[in-house]
Amino acid sequence: MSRRLQKELRDLQLTGCPTGIALLKADDFQTWILSLEVLGNTLYEGEKFALRFVFDNSYPITPPAVMFVVDDENQAPIHPHVYSNGHICASILGNEWSPVLTVSAVCITLQSMLASCKSKERPPDNNRYVSHAPADPRKTRWDFHDDSV
Amino acid sequence: MKVTIKNWHAIAQWRWDIGSNEVDDEGDVCGICRVPYEGCCPSCKMPGDDCPLIWGECSHVFHMHCLLKWLGTAASKQQCPMDRRPWGESIVSS
Question: Cis omega before residue A134 (within 30°)?
Fold first, then answer.
């Protein structure tokens, strides 16, 4: 289904990414990196994050693996749903995925998840999760207990 | 003046009748593969009767093959990808 990704790439290049989102790397149809900023008056003002999308052949029937890049240059945002290893607990990336969602729609959702954050905290089980987390966040069985942030 | 037509060729165009005349940029592509309804799903080579559309009771339309691929996964929970309502096929007489 990389044809769908080709279309998404062309759309992003022709009509531009949503505000605050930029395409950093999309050399193939396996891994894309996008940058994400939360604009306006939010707790993340002035911060810039990188998101990694990993697609498999069945995209968009299966969701992409989406995580914040954590390396020498990038950190995961401090947020109750974002673990320090970059894994994100968001229902649309797991059991609420829909094949009509796009890279752009996922970025916008994550942007608004950050924008509505009231206090910068790591998830309460961060250390426990990060020490046992699978490399692919889609292998984690998340409990979605909090819809408020 | 008298004109004699020696030969001619006709060009026909077809569209699926999706029950609305509005043609907007987003409205006439399958939401799953993003290919126009009149094109075919990524698994097919020829558009037309072999790659038909499917209508939901919720009024959403997809390439049948795209939707069946989705409904074939446990993750779909047999829901419409657009509105997450239980998928039911709408039987339209044509």
Answer: no
Q: Provide the residue count of chain A.
A: 149
β-bridge partners, A35: A22, A50
Predicted structure pTM score: 0.86
CATH number for the domain that contains residue B46? 3.30.40.10
Do A61 and B70 lie within an 8 Å CB cutoff? yes
Chain B touched by A64 (CB under 8 Å): no
CA angle (A125 as vertex; A123, A128 as ends), nearest 5: 135
| Count: domains in chain B | 1
Give the integer Cα–Cα distance in Å for B43 and A102.
20
Q: Which two tokens stand for residue A71?
A: 């390396």
The pLDDT score that the predictor gives to residue A76 is 97
Residues 108-147 of A with CB under 8 A from B: none
Residue A107 and residue A34 in contact, taking contact as beta carbons nearer than 8 Å? yes
Any idea what the CATH number is for the domain that residue A41 is in?
3.10.110.10
